[in-house]
Structure formats: structure tokens, C-alpha cells
Amino acid sequence: MISDELKDHRDVITKVIDNLVPDIEAACAIICEVIKAGNKVLLAGNGGSAADAQHIAAELTGRFVKERKPLPGIALTTDTSALTAIANDYGYDQVFSRQLEGLASAGDLFIGISTSGNSAGIIKAFDVARALNCKTLGLSGRDGGKMNDCCDLNIIVPSIFTARIQEMHILIGHILCKAVDNLFE
Question: Which residues take part in binding Zn(2+) (predicted)?
């Protein structure tokens, strides 16, 4: 079982290397442009993708590898009062879009993470981010789902298995953080 899991992981990462390097380079350029301009990176996802959003935000506000100033990375998944109030008053599918309306500004970057690419709350958040003139980056899997039509760049991990998709999402998140680290001497 262990060997099979590792081989499956290797097969997916080989597909990522063979097919997604240009998209990952484009995503690195987007996040670096946003950071250089002094704008924020806002992230959201559900379940394991929420954990990935928080992880990437923490790498920005804390540090990834290099000592540098803290950067504005905000996970929209962490404020339980906001999440539960918005879900109660407006419905769960608006927990991220309502926060974006209050926190995002033109030129910020919204990163939405959904293994299926079809999470209703993430799709609504992309709609709001675009209306606010934010840049938008998706991390998805399978066929990219509805996210294909609602973000500037949707990086689609070539797998149907949630675990493999999430493993690649955090790897891609780390690559984004490495690109940001490289902005600083």
C-alpha cells in the first residue's frame, strides 16, 4: 500500500512537471507582481483546501525560508465569528465572498482552492474578486470545473484523487512562496 501511494504521487508529480510548469511560472509572476505593488494575497478553500489556504498565508506573514519582512497574506478561513455569522445570515456559499467585499482592494490577489473546481463558495468569491478588480488564481484538480471560467489562471492538477490534488496544491503553494522569497535580498 505504501509503495502504491508513493508511486501514485510520483506519477502525478511527473504529470505536473510535464504539463504545468508554464502555468506555475505565470502564477509566480502574478503573486510577485501583487507583492511588489504592495497589495494583499487573500486565500480560501474548504476542508483540506482551507488548511492549504492557511498554510500559504502563514508562509507569507511569517516566512517561508528566507528572513524577510512579513507580507500581507490573509486566509479567509480562520475567523470563526465571521464564518459562522455570514453562514447563518447569508448562507455558507457567501462566507468568502462577503469577507472579500470587506477586505479586498483592486490589485489584490485572491487565490481560491478547490479540488473539484466547483465549490459554490469559491466560485462566488471569484465573482466578487473580479468585480473588485482583484487578480484571481485558482488551484483545482480533475477537469478544473467551474473555476475554468471564473479566474485569470486556474492551475488544474491532473488527478481525480483528492489526496494527490491537495499534495500538489501545497507544493505549488510552496513554489509561490519561494518566488516571493526571491524578491527579497
Answer: 55, 59, 166, 174
